[in-house]
Amino acid sequence: MNDDSADANLRERIPTAIYSTAKDASAVVAREISDVICSRNAEGNSTVLGLATGSTPTGVYQELARLHKEESLSFAKVRTFNLDEYYGLGPTHPESYAAFMERHLFSKVDIPSDAAVVPDGTVPREEVSAYCESYEKSILEAGGIDIQVLGIGRTGHIGFNEPGSGRDSRTRLVELDALTRADAAQDFLGEENVPPYAITMGVGTILDARKVFLLAWGTPKAAILAKAVEDSISEALPASFLQEHKDANVLVDEAAAAELSRHRHP
Ligand code: PGA
């Protein structure tokens, strides 16, 4: 790590740590998650994780799987809630986030299958709103999210909360931004195959988590990351709402940090 919030440029409104590589930063996040799980396990208590998909968190999941295998980190008492799912995709669809989570984490650790929850993208349209309410209720009944892992989209979304999403938004059906669909086009072999809608936790749901890690890697994320961290809070950039969170932490690699003021005007 080169720096931390103590002497970072004052324009940063969320504590931001810059790492040489995404791998280094991912190891730090995985270790923090593992420490919480271990201390909860020792007390006989469960840990509730809020999880993200996409390329950003895969290094964290890889490291958690390694800790499970090599250091006996047990997920037997962990419960997880994923941020979002494409509407219309079931868990057997390879691009569904349920399938993604199975591939990258759930199949590699000892989490009970009913404790690893991804929003159900196959709920009939007329039942979606009741389903979203029940998703919120399940999180509360589990005791609330202890640690939320987040990526950031080039629109500034967290989960699928695209620009225009309010501070108090909750789990709901949303329409994806054109840029988000363009960014997903490769995975779906063409933008026309990317589902237009998704179910996502809301900004308010995310802000209720007790601790949040927002991760960003690579040059394509540099501009939006700097805005989320340094500009005023706005619905036009949903990730900026994390500035209101008491324990939100941004971890970036050098490339994603490039547009921060401390780099542009050192
Ligand atoms: P990515 O997506 O991890 O694939 O870059 C992040 C996001 O859209 O939240």
Give the helix/strand layout.
Blueprint lengths: L15 E4 L2 H22 L3 E5 L6 H14 L6 E5 L1 E3 L10 H8 L11 E2 L10 H14 L5 E4 L21 E4 L2 H7 L12 E4 L2 H5 L3 E6 L5 H9 L17 E6 L7 H4 L2
Parallel strand pairs: 1-10, 2-3, 2-6, 3-5, 6-9, 9-10
Antiparallel strand pairs: 4-8, 7-8
Helix pairs in contact: 1-2
The structure holds 2-phosphoglycolic acid.
Produce a short descriptive summary:
This protein has helices spanning 22-43, 58-71, 97-104, 128-141, 178-184, 203-207, 222-230, 261-264, and strands at 16-19, 47-51, 78-82, 84-86, 116-117, 147-150, 172-175, 197-200, 211-216, 248-253. The chain is an alpha/beta fold and 266 residues long.
Can you walk through the features of this model?
This protein is α/β, with parallel strands linked by helices and 266 residues long. It has one domain: Rossmann fold, CATH 3.40.50. It has 8 helices and 10 strands. The chain has a 7-stranded parallel sheet with strand order 1-10-9-6-2-3-5, sandwiched between helices. A 3-stranded antiparallel sheet has the order 4-8-7. Strand 9, helix 7 and strand 10 form a beta-alpha-beta unit. The two termini are 17 Å apart. The model has no long low-confidence stretch (mean pLDDT 96). 2-phosphoglycolic acid (PGA) binds next to loops.
Return the CATH class: Alpha Beta
N-to-C span = 17 Å
Total helical segments: 8
Main sheet: strand order: 1-10-9-6-2-3-5
Q: Largest sheet at a glance?
A: 7 strands, parallel
| Beta-strand residue fraction | 15-25%
Helix content: 25-40%
**CATH fold label:** Rossmann fold
CATH architecture label: 3-Layer(aba) Sandwich
Q: Kindly state the mean pLDDT as a whole number?
A: 96
Number of domains: 1
Structural class: alpha/beta
Can you tell me the overall shape?
A: globular
The strand count comes to 10
What low-confidence regions span 5 or more consecutive residues with pLDDT below 50? none
Order of helices and strands: EHEHEEHEHEEHEHEHEH
Using only C-alpha atoms, the radius of gyration works out to 18 Å
